[in-house]
Amino acid sequence: MRRLRVVAPASFAAGAAALALVLPGCRLLPEARGPAARQLGLATGAPSVLAVLVDEDSPAALTMTRELVLATARNAEHILVIGDHGGELLASSTAPNPPSIRVPGPPPALPPDPTSFQKSHYTRALRQYRAMLRDARARLGSRRRQQLAAWARSLLAQLSARIHQVGSAAGRGAAGLAGALGAAAADISSLRQAGLSDTAGQAVVIIGGNGVSGLAAPVLPQALRGSSVVVAGFPGSSDDEAAWQAALMQDGAARAVLLVPAASGQLGTVVRQGLDGAFADTLTSVLFALGQSRLRAAALPQLGRLLQLLTVTYPQATASIDGYTDDLPTPGGNRQLSQRRAAAVQAWLVAHGVAPSRLQAAGYGDADPIAPNTPAGQPLNRRVVVIINPGG
């Protein structure tokens, strides 16, 4: 009996041989496993507290309060709005946590000793993944802005409803403002007892300058020490301003900023910096003569307070020193003049022991005026602003 022999076609044999050579070392098609999904969120800073003491009978003060709430809304922030007549709590709320979404996990890592094809495939997949993450974060950022705006509007609706319930109040004066500060201190103490701690920043804002006109600075309660204290629309003289600043700093305020009515547009920026832990100190006494950059003797008290902040209160802090001018033309240009003004403050601080590496001076010319560039407002725009970052 003859043995039957089956002969494969040559093309099939060649293909089988090639397949046999490739399969043992093949890494092109690893076992398909979908990357594990993960939750993508946005970073949230440490909790912060904003206490607003407002003249509830002043439409202008209430408008400024509404603008401030909208401008400073952030995740993990607790806002208290308190009437400055006697400490009536008008609104209180904590901002929600930021939104998050589920996204796929990153592409699987390359195997040891990858081929050029695998490298190219991985690079392309990683690029696509990073683009997807950027898009996802952008969507989250938009959702967070909408979320915070809705939260702020809810708090403002609470404020409006409460003001209608309370009605007009009487008895404004030193006792009223002191009572409002005491109420803010009690509310913040209650928040801490409920578990709020490690705040990134704590700011107390007094809105309604007529309520403090002619009054001595109130005593800062213990629970408010370490806060940034901001008075919007301060109506007093430069001597009154200096007295308030000195008294508040002596009581333990981290800083005291008194904004004259012409500078009230800076309120949101100043408060945001306080809640961030960094803050701006506008050297209102360091105002310069027209076209000049020389420091005046009147600037020494405020420069001394700034030196105290940088050497004692925040010895590791860094600071940006920003110079400004009015809009009047000057030889060499306003940008150069503003740079010389910032450099003059920097040189004074260095001469008094602050390391140059901690300071950065820049001039911005007539940008960002804090007052109208009229004969009355131009002197206020010839200024220096020092932004202190306590964390270095």
Write structural notes for this entry.
By secondary structure, the chain is of the alpha/beta class. The protein has 2 domains: 37-276, 3-Layer(aba) Sandwich (Rossmann fold); 278-392, OmpA-like domain (60s Ribosomal Protein L30, Chain: A), CATH 3.30.1330.60. 40% of the residues lie in helices and 17% in strands. It is built from 9 helices and 12 strands. The strands form 3 sheets. It has a 6-stranded mixed beta sheet, sandwiched between helices. Strands 9-12-10-11 form a 4-stranded mixed beta sheet. Strands 1-5 form a two-stranded antiparallel ribbon. α2 (59-72) crosses α6 (267-276). It is globular and about 75 Å long. The N and C termini lie far apart (97 Å).
What CATH calls the topology of the largest domain is Rossmann fold
Biggest pleated-sheet summary? 6 strands, mixed
Helix count, DSSP H or I runs of 4 or more residues: 9
End-to-end Cα distance: 97 Å
Number of strands: 12
Quickly count the domains: 2
Q: Give me the CATH architecture of the largest domain, please.
A: 3-Layer(aba) Sandwich
Shape, per Cα inertia axes: globular
Mean pLDDT rating = 81
